[in-house]
């Protein structure tokens, strides 16, 4: 990786970093074709796409019972992976239970006003599983829905000749009601529009590669979605106290997700920048998934950057609006105070992003492509809708009547004004 100065970035380089789209735009047309076919042809199209993109001749699309069996088998074998899933699930559940909002009512001046929160009925969570298996994403997608009280949670995950038992067990442990072996854009379309086998849902959530993410953008409007959670990203904001090996480890970790992943380090220390670039190079060689890692590192949206000051580095981080922001610096809290745009922030040398990816409890389904400027990650709120409640006594209506009727008349809506006057006659 070569080191570039933030101040010397060309307009095209800045665009690649700040308007990164992880290849999603390029597959939009293909994805629309996939979505349309699933909408029109249902299971037939889903099976054809499974053959074409996953190389699997799918038997039964519904694998809910297989997930329960995989879970029971790991349990019978006292499998340590199931133990890890359970501990992670407990932490995710605990963190999300704190997010459940309380209904409230307040009375004053004869007005009783309030807000109530109710879960949606049916949610669908995509659990990725193309190049790697993602049992952790099953916990992150399903548990918040269960905590919110969603009545029916479906999961789709890519098909395989030998489905990953750990992913299936995690989906079951998380509390999914139905599991379908469908991957990619076709899975998102199946959840959005329904097929003979896959039940339609009210909201589709979850992360995935560029095809999954483009499909969520395509169905948005016909069905609710959480937000776009595409190929992973990390931005490390580091000063001269950071260990270059730790910074490099963060870049390598998120780079192994996808050739379209974006990984960046920005620092005011020129020596650190050089050392990070060197450590990344040394770390790519001979590793598993080296091709994926190399492609992600060479991405136009990745790089090691030198800033003239930590203030310039912070401004860069604000504009970048990373999915994951790791701050390894002496006064990390002071830097954090100046940051508003980030999906999840990891403070200090002992808080690797992997801790949040798997085990601490906060959700790892987070906005990519700068979405952190506009919304936060998956949470219990994602699965709730609110309604407001109001009750007025006669005096309270009388007190407000002038305001109501004046505004109604200003809008030319006489029947609105009349509905108030009638009650006060
Ligand atoms: N942002 C987040 O919160 C977050 C969280 C976890 C994972 N992720 C991301 O999820 C992604 C997982 O990607 P993955 O590929 O391993 O699994 P995936 O399940 O997202 O994608 C696999 C599917 O892609 C489809 N596909 C593959 N090649 C295709 C082609 N040429 N045309 C059409 N469709 C095709 C197939 O249908 C396959 O089932 C990674 O990008 C990872 O970074 C993001
Ligand atoms: N880093 C991913 C979110 O972008 C989540 C994940 C799952 N497994 C490992 N990592
Ligand atoms: Zn990760």
Q: Could you give a quick summary of the protein structure above?
A:
Helix content is 47%, strand content 18%. It is α/β, with parallel strands linked by helices.
Can you walk me through this structure?
- There is one protein chain.
- With 425 residues, the protein is α/β, with parallel strands linked by helices.
- The chain has 3 domains: 3-19 and 231-361, Rossmann fold; 25-225, Rossmann fold; 393-424, no CATH class.
- It is built from 17 helices and 14 strands.
- The strands form 3 sheets. Strands 1-11-10-9-12-13 form a 6-stranded parallel sheet, with helices on both faces. A 5-stranded parallel sheet has the order 6-5-4-7-8, with helices on both faces.
- α6 packs parallel to α7.
- It starts with a strand and ends with a helix.
- The site of L-histidinol has 8 residues, from α6.
- InterPro entries: Ald_DH/histidinol_DH, Histidinol_DH_CS, Histidinol_DH_monofunct, Hstdl_DH.
- NAD(+) binds at residues 126, 186, 209.
- It is an enzyme of class 1 (oxidoreductase).
